[in-house]
TrEMBL record:
Residue ranges of the TM segments: 27-48, 54-75, 82-101, 107-128, 135-153, 184-212, 233-253, 313-336
Membrane topology: Multi-pass membrane protein
Gene Ontology MF terms: branched-chain amino acid transmembrane transporter activity
Subcellular location: Cell membrane
Protein name as catalogued: Branched-chain amino acid ABC transporter permease
Main location: membrane
Species, as recorded: Xanthobacter tagetidis
């Protein structure tokens, strides 16, 4: 059965235009957007690239996982592997210091091939895992990620083994060197904003609404005539495309790619980032990524400042994430939602008291 063969079964809601969606945003959205646009004037190059740009790249990869888990109910551990594969393809088909392997294609051709191959790989991984649920899906995708790690580690003909590739530089395009700090920051910021908009648009489209239906009640959706498996595979394809684009940005940020980029540790880190940020909103993975990068960057100095062994910085990161998840199963987004909801109820209660006081005899009219 085709994915969209029964349009009448979809809810009446249709994708909103980009302008209308932006117009509905509140003050916090515009303040955050202005700060991000003005950030090169406010912070140093270290904060601009090593913290913010890196956090947004990880956030894009985690966003692909958030789309699968939040809208499709699919927990996949292969998203970082898709990003790493895209980075490897950019190095193999494009330019790097390993000239005996790299083919030297133009940067745009290498990027197109990287996105296509990585998306196809992620889609195939989804096709192998969508017929399972829960822990079985996690184990299959983890097995695929582990297999890719050992393949890149042991293969020297194509992936250059343990050393990987270095000397991978961002392109010079339209007279701009996108490897410079400020242009690269704006490149990552633009791609992140586009990825967020794409997820919001697809989630509100008929396909996204049907995907959420398969998450909530797959048997009922199948009874209505929807191909549940096809919807999940298509979700993998869309999420893999997001992760592939993020992988290209990641290899340009690191200027190198190695097996450790797609190792089990980074694979699990993406899951942690998505969960800590929150799986209910597209902004959640970016918040989780920022917290992760800040903890990873400054926890070593913090431990040494208090007189503890700096080698235990991973413990501090784990404890921080554990505290967040314990207080809010929906991550930082859930905490923010509860705070704003409590503030809204407090305002409504005060307004009601004022109305009651004004209506009472002798009260202020």
């Amino acid at each position: 059965m085709a994915i969209a063969e029964h349009p009448s079964a979809y809810p009446a809601r249709r994708p909103d235009r980009l302008g209308a969606a932006i117009a509905r945003q509140g003050t916090a959205f515009w303040v955050a957007a202005a700060l991000l646009l003005l950030m090169p004037l406010l912070v140093s190059s270290f904060w601009l690239v090593q913290i913010l740009a890196y956090a947004m790249i990880l956030g894009m990869i985690a966003l692909s996982l958030m789309f699968l888990a939040g809208y499709g109910g699919i927990v996949s551990l292969v998203q970082m592997t898709v990003a790493a594969l895209a980075g490897y393809v950019v190095a193999i088909f494009g330019h790097s210091a390993i000239t005996q392997i790299s083919l030297g294609w133009p940067w745009w051709a290498a990027v197109i091939v990287a996105v296509l191959i990585a998306t196809a790989f992620g889609t195939l991984s989804g096709a192998l895992s969508v017929r399972t649920e829960g822990i079985y899906t996690i184990m299959i995708t983890l097995a695929i990620a582990s297999a890719f790690y050992y393949l890149t580690l042991q293969n020297y003909t194509v992936f250059n083994g343990f050393s990987g590739f270095n000397g991978i530089t961002p392109p010079v395009f339209l007279g701009v060197d996108w490897g410079e700090n400020i242009p690269f920051y704006y490149l990552v910021l633009g791609c992140s904003a586009l990825a967020c908009w794409a997820v919001v648009y697809v989630a509100r489209a008929p396909f996204g609404l049907a995907l959420q239906g398969t998450r909530d009640n797959p048997r009922r959706m199948a009874a209505l005539g929807f191909d549940v498996t096809a919807h999940k595979i298509a979700a993998y394809a869309f999420a893999s495309a997001l992760a592939a684009f993020a992988g290209v940005l990641l290899v340009w940020y690191q200027r190198q790619i190695s097996p450790g980029t797609g190792g089990v540790g980074p694979v699990v880190d993406i899951l942690i980032i998505a969960v800590v940020g929150g799986l209910s909103r597209p902004i959640g993975p970016f918040i989780g990524a920022l917290v992760y990068v800040l903890l990873r960057t400054f926890s070593l100095d913090l431990l040494e400042w208090v007189g503890l062994d700096g080698k235990r910085f991973q413990l501090l990161i784990g404890l921080g994430f554990l505290v967040i998840v314990l207080f809010s199963p929906d991550g930082l987004i859930g905490i923010w939602r509860r705070i704003t909801e409590r503030a809204r109820r407090s305002r409504e209660a005060r307004a009601a008291q004022m109305r009651i006081g004004g209506d009472a005899p002798g009260g202020t009219p």
